[in-house]
Design a protein that fits this description.
With 109 residues, this protein is mainly α. It is 48% helix and 9% strand. It is built from 3 helices and 2 strands; from the N terminus they run αββαα. β1 and β2 form a beta hairpin. The protein is elongated, with a radius of gyration of 20 Å.
């Protein structure tokens, strides 16, 4: 009986752990629901610089017409403490993406 209990517990633990590893990866730039909101320009967390999706589903919200993504909710305190720093980082990434996009468009013409 003890042997079956051990096998059963091991099987359930295996199923649970397998389910934890299946997470969808976030895309670098996503389309916001509101057309007035600027889409997130990075494929990493704006605070921790970790790959989005590496810690599960990213935390997504809108701040001052900008779509912001964190690798986890834990980055919220740091963002709120240094909001200006991260908004500047966001805006620089948007400009960099625009420059790269316009370069590609110019080369293909």
């Amino acid at each position: 009986m003890k042997k079956w209990t051990t096998i059963l517990i091991s099987g359930v633990a295996g199923i649970i752990l397998t389910g934890c590893t299946e997470s969808k990866k976030a895309t670098a730039v996503s389309d916001p629901v509101d057309p007035d909101v600027i889409a997130y320009p990075l494929d990493t967390c704006i605070v921790a610089d970790k790959k989005l999706g590496s810690m599960g589903k990213p935390y997504v919200f809108v701040h001052e017409k900008r779509q912001i993504k964190f690798c986890c909710i834990g980055c919220d305190d740091e963002f709120n403490s240094n909001t200006e720093k991260y908004i500047k980082k966001f805006d620089l990434a948007v400009e960099k993406n625009k420059d790269a996009s316009s370069k590609i468009n110019t080369q293909t013409k």
